[in-house]
Amino acid sequence: MSWDDLPQIDLYSDGGAEPNPGKGGFGVILSYKGRIKEFSVGYELTTNNRMELMAVIFGLEKIKTKAKVTVYSDSKYVVDGIKQGWAVGWERDHWIKKKGNLVLNKDLWQRLLDVIDKHDVVFNWVKGHDGHIENERCDQLASNGINSEHKIKDEGYLEYLENIEYYQEQKIEKEGDACRKCETLVVKKSPKKRKLKPGQNYYYEYYLFCPNCKTMYMVEDAKRTIDQQGNSLFE
Ligand SMILES: [Zn+2]
Predict the structure, then answer these.
(1) Are both 160 and 202 inside the same structural domain?
(2) What's the pTM?
(3) How far, in Å, is the centroid of ligand 1 from the Cα of 8?
(4) How far is the CA of 78 from the centre of ligand 1 (A)?
(5) What is the domain extent for residue 83?
(6) 209 CA → ligand 1 middle, Å
(7) 15 and 129 in one domain?
(8) How far is the CA of 103 from the centre of ligand 1 (A)?
(9) Does the annotation count 14 as an active-site position?
(10) In the annotation, is 169 catalytic?
(11) How far is residue 136's CA from residue 226's CA, in Å, rounded to a whole number?
(12) 3-class secondary-structure state, position 198
């Protein structure tokens, strides 16, 4: 079967928890040749990021024959984790972060990589709550899940709890580390050029930035000191 013969499927997803962590839900739409299938699932206790991951996994696992799938998610955590190659890197490192701790939500990242392998999958990030019709619909389906009376248990939540304490104590040091506030994976950014203040003998070449909650992290590795001569320019 050649590439062009594969069925082409669009997968839209959204997930969330209220509060975070708290009761959760996700919504998924699968679209194939104009035919649409909708799913809505609720969980007793989970997190935003777990629901965003679960939504994509659930949708992909519903597809029974090899397909070309385009995923649309408003989660930077999910989309960057795949597109920037971080999840593949974690798998290669056997899901162990520094000091022997596990990658956060390892269970779901592993499941996601496994199901991606069965298809040809492309990920797209869409801005949430921005009038994107299918994204809005998925948001509604996720809410239906959160408010449903038949919620199921997120079996991986306990392992998540064991790991999260470690993460909240960690320094943010490099791209792909999890933001302490929202767990989204941070990216490198270059600061706008600005003049040094008189007497300032250092600057940061880059900083780490959470694309979700916009928190900035200054890192020691990016700190550059300026020699006396450079400094004297300001005297
Ligand atoms: Zn964040």
Answers:
(1) no
(2) 0.87
(3) 33
(4) 13
(5) 3-169
(6) 8
(7) yes
(8) 16
(9) yes
(10) no
(11) 50
(12) coil
Give yes or no for a cis peptide into 19 (omega within 30° of 0): yes
Q: Which residue type does 42 have?
A: G
Q: Ligand 1 center to residue 21 CA distance, Å? A: 15
Can 94 be counted among the known catalytic residues? no
Residues 7 and 109 in one domain: yes
Handedness of CA 109, 112, 114, 116 (dihedral sign): negative
First-residue to last-residue Cα distance in the chain? 71
pLDDT digits (tens, 9 = 90+) for 101-147: 789 999 999 999 999 999 999 999 999 988 899 999 999 999 999 99
Q: Which of 129, 162, 221, 230 is catalytic?
A: 129
* Calpha distance 41→77 (Å, rounded): 20
Judge whether 74 counts as a catalytic residue: yes
Residues 123 and 150 in one domain: yes
Indicate whether 128 and 226 sit together in one domain. Answer: no
Each residue of 47-100: pLDDT tens digit?
999 999 999 999 999 999 999 999 999 999 999 999 999 999 999 999 987 777
Question: Is 53 domain-assigned?
Answer: yes
Are 144 and 58 within one domain? yes
Q: How far does residue 47's CA lie from ligand 1's centre (Å)? A: 14
* Beta carbons within 10 angstroms of residue 192's beta carbon: 5
Same domain, 97 and 13: yes
From 15, 16, 24, 27, active-site residue: 15
The residues, ordered by sequence, that sit 6+ positions from 5 with a Cβ below 8 Å of its Cβ are: none
